[in-house]
Amino acid sequence: MCLTVAVSSGLAFFLGDSRTVVVASHDAVVTPTFDGYVALRTGPLLPDVRQATGGPIGVDLVLGKTQSSSVEELFARYAFIASEPDSQVAKVTAAVRDMAVSAALRGAALGMVPLGTWWLLGPHRRGQLFRGVRTRKGVAAALVLVSVPLLLWQPWSADEESQESQGEWEPLETFMAGFPIPAEAAGIEIRNSATTVQTQRLIQSAVDTYEKSTEFYDRAAEEAGALELHEPADDETVALVVSDRHDNIGMDRVARAIGDRAGATVVLDAGDDTSTGQPWEAFSLDSLNRAVDDLDRFAVAGNHDNGPFVAGYLDDLGWQMLDGTAVDAPWGGLLMGVDDPRSSGLGNWRDETGLSFSEVGERLADAACEVADDGERISTLLVHDANLGGESLARGCVDLVVGGHTHVQAGPELVEGEDGRAGYTFTNGTTGGAAYAIAVGSKPRRDADVSLVTYRDGHPVGTQWVRLRTNGVFVVGEYAELVLDDES
């Protein structure tokens, strides 16, 4: 009986549960089902789609609010995210798994109630109850107990026939007859009740974007594995630098492939992973994290990562967000960084607010030089805009400043600091290939850059940039040695 109660109630809890997550740039309500389909409910104006899961458990995704200036832009975004779906699939899977675990625990707890009641009653009281079951009162009580679940369920109650229920599911290839459908779309079905010729054109455009994006970035990731890059020595550590991704998740697998080819074990993210810093852009952060989640990850927020969302989300994903305090770096030296003061509008240095860009740069230099005065200079200063580390270099307190922001690669440039203590400044281009604040598209809108920094004995010893042109051709910069004398 306990097992029956636990299983039945657990299933009821599971099917009645839901979670709100951000999926494919939408607020989405995730509800588990047992129909074996992943169904995407897109709202009153767009057609619903579904695909079989290959198992008994399915899920309903009801898409809610997002930000888009047009339906065409929204469909293009869908196609782009679909070309790199793993992070979104993982998020929904985690939500369903969490609901399953929660339902199992609640079901098990409820299943213990009969056992606990049996134990608390004791033999004498149990005997009295069993004898009472054979009376008319006992029969009436049993009927009431049986009726309670039925009354709660109320199977005779039904909703009115809806427009949605009148629609029929048909294969995407049937709906798009005459238009080539990628193999990855096999098994996708679309509800045909609300579709129009205009909807068909939007889907055709989305499929075209999907195919172009998948082909371009897959080919780039494959070719990245054969690039001629600097080979690190056994005692050297390589860090992969990304910046200004601006939601271009297609470049994430390319950046990882370049990092693998170079032997990178660390990621330095110089910010502007998003265009506005809003929760709908969580898909971009999920994608980046999934691409590099087995590496040591450090990041700062850029000026387009407005507000607290980006930094907080990456922190929850396990990234070490730098806050102006020196931390031990995986290569043996000290690493420091701080969010761009323009991202929050505060410039919050510790507990202060209202600081300007230059004032934050001065406070950052104070902190870096305080560490250096104690005997160990900062190995790398990670900032969004390399200019934020200018004062730290001028005072001779850091080996290397790494940033982004300008979307144009520059450096490494030697800067002579006080007392001859030199350091370097280096700016990565835009990893997302962004011409403006957002880089969603079937290929980069301009050249897309990642960079590699090599460390030995706790200090940077070389940099190298790698550029993917808009035509899919790679250009690899020369490995630039960083020479720091003993006094530096």
* Global outline: globular
Instruction: Give the fraction of residues assigned to helices.
Output: 25-40%
Q: What class would the helix/strand composition place it in?
A: alpha/beta
Taking the sheet with the most strands, its summary is: 8 strands, mixed
Give the low-confidence spans. Answer: 344-352
Taking all Cα atoms into account, the compactness measure Rg is: 29 Å
How far do the termini sit from each other? 75 Å
What's the overall average pLDDT, rounded?
80
Number of helices: 13
Query: Care to count the β-strands?
Result: 21
Strand composition percent: 15-25%
Short description:
Strands 8, 9, 10, 11, 18, 19, 20 and 21 form an 8-stranded mixed sheet that branches. Strands 1-2-5-3-4-7-6 form a 7-stranded mixed sheet. It is an alpha/beta fold.
Question: Your description of this structure?
Answer:
The protein is of the alpha/beta class and 488 residues long. It is built from 13 helices and 21 strands. It has helices at residues 2-16, 71-82, 86-133, 136-153, 163-166, 172-175, 197-224, 250-262, 282-292, 309-316, 341-344, 357-373, 390-394, and strands at 19-23, 26-33, 37-41, 49-52, 58-63, 169-171, 188-191, 236-242, 264-269, 296-299, 320-321, 327-328, 334-337, 378-382, 398-403, 410-415, 423-427, 448-456, 459-468, 474-476, 480-481. The strands form 3 sheets. Strands 8, 9, 10, 11, 18, 19, 20 and 21 form an 8-stranded mixed beta sheet that branches. α1 runs antiparallel to α3 (86-133). It is globular, with a radius of gyration of 29 Å.
